[in-house]
């Protein structure tokens, strides 16, 4: 019972991060399940089954707060479903470990670019037209397959790629990726059920993660609705860099002390980046109010 309560808490915290930054639920939950003794396929199966419920509630919450671009969701969902289904059914035949450092290095570079883009952008952010199908469909297929194989990957790949493209407002990137994940989770779950059978799935673990995630989903969507694009982009970029730096260092055989030092340096920089983003947004507000007639009420954009 204690283990289930801990898993529910993990599901809650993981969904708060995932629903706010567009990534983290699968990676966090899978890591804990693997540490608890579940095999990779069983851990990923439990995560995907729980995500059916958490992503449904998260998507509905994001829609209620206006965080979803439904055209993007419509293009992403089907390729993501196909990728997750294939990734789940082929998990036992693929050498996922060999791909880990390559994917981590790519995501690390993209995370650094996302952070730089939002910090170096002009004070008043502008976003280009929405991403095209030729960009979204292959990305959805790859992200869905990686998500099933690694127990997490839909958010890191999807959110990172869309943020780095600069074609969609960050809160709509997060909301659209989270909403499309409902279909992706169904694809992955079907693949695992066919490959493992219902007896191979830890339903109690999936249920505990589900309960915690459902509780956190509406709150996370509310946070995204009120965060400034620059602050949200920098926060997401920092999570990408921090997570994949650790993954890359571990896969290359770095010592625990080295990994801890690298993580502490990046975490400190991440805090400074967010503080700088907040300062830039305050400067935007100051510029906006400087030329208003005296006595004009100011409406906060937070």
Automatic annotation (TrEMBL):
Keywords: Cell membrane, Membrane, Transmembrane, Transmembrane helix
Keyword Acetylation: no
Transmembrane segments: 29-49, 70-92, 98-121, 133-154, 203-224, 231-249, 255-276
Short name of any one Pfam family annotated for the protein: TauE
Lipid bilayer topology: Multi-pass membrane protein
Subcellular location: Cell membrane; Membrane
A GO CC term assigned to this protein in UniProt: plasma membrane
Similarity comment: Belongs to the 4-toluene sulfonate uptake permease (TSUP) (TC 2.A.102) family.
Name this polypeptide is given: Probable membrane transporter protein
The species this protein was found in: Nocardioides ginsengisegetis
